[in-house]
Please model this.
Amino acid sequence: MNLKGKKILLGISGSIAAYKIPMLIRELIKEGAEVKVICTKDALNFVTAPTLSTLSGNPVCLDFIKNENGEWTNHVELALWADVMMIAPATANTLAKLANGLSGNLLIVTAMSARCPIILAPAMDHDMYMYAATQRNIEKLKSYGHHIINPEFGELASGLIGQGRLPEEKTLINCLQMVLTSPKKFDGKTVLVTAGPTQEAIDPVRYLSNHSTGKMGISLAKEFAFAGAKVIFIHGPINMQPNSVFGGLNIETIEAIDAEQMDKAVSRNFKNSDICVMAAAVADYKPNVIATKKIKKGTNMVKLELVSTNDILFNLGNTKKKTQTLVGFALETDHEEKNAISKLQKKNLDMIVLNSLNNKGAGFKYNTNQVTMICKNGEKLKTPLKNKSEIALDIINQIYKIRS
Model:
């Protein structure tokens, strides 16, 4: 899901973490969102109004009275304008005022007037965050229905190490997307998603693998999480830092280097999942014998003997329950649709997603993809070439349709 056309009211209170907010605004604007900013006066000790105004494209709202002529800032109008309100950073003082209805500044009265979802991102020193009154206020705000983004653990402005850091902008954006996704099509569902390649060792330094980057699986995991699901993301060796990609989302990550590890991780989690989407490019073959030492150049090695890996998808198809939905992927270069349908039938899938390497801009490495979704009932849906996040949304919508 993108944020195009979404109206985001961003509140900033007086924490040194406010220095991160200009980059957040920049990313939100790039995503196509409309942004208006409300600041407390203390926030301007850490970030300037001209910076916020320039990046958001709107004047910064600071006080009830705009000028000497008595023109006032209509906090009710601001609150009704927004699709979502986020206060980041939210200081202990701001949390306390909002929890107890102490309407002493424009930010608080606007939040109290809001009918949209409110997201709060606390940021403060560790001891302040853990203080009993702060924790009580956070629980009270949760009881009001507000969304709380837990602060991160790390080095703080005080020089101490602890929980209190404002998450990076990617985590904040993930939370905005999750809150704005409506309806929550997969609330209460557990979804297993696999992604990336596997690496099958030849010796301690070499392996067999493929060009999968895991981008399609990452997009699927995020879209399921935005739609309310608990996601178990099992991935091969991919260039991903889970906190930066999935921060703030209900996604558990498990790394599986080779096909055997992938098989064990998937088998362990499949029985408790409602939906399983096998987007990983698991190796079909592995070396029969793995050399214990590096094979030196010039070694008289006539051939590399390969044996089949376990067919994870086939085994899942044989054991899946009627309440479970199983989706596979097929990457083909010839007789594409025929091969995909054969795989769908042999492996007892509910749907297969066909990728073709003959489509320019689709498949491995690209940020775009073009797929054909083929369902067990014979229904086919072909997408145009578009961003993988959009393809992921098409796929989960089709899964929802299958399950409805």
Summary: Residues 27 and 169 are 8 Å apart (CA to CA).
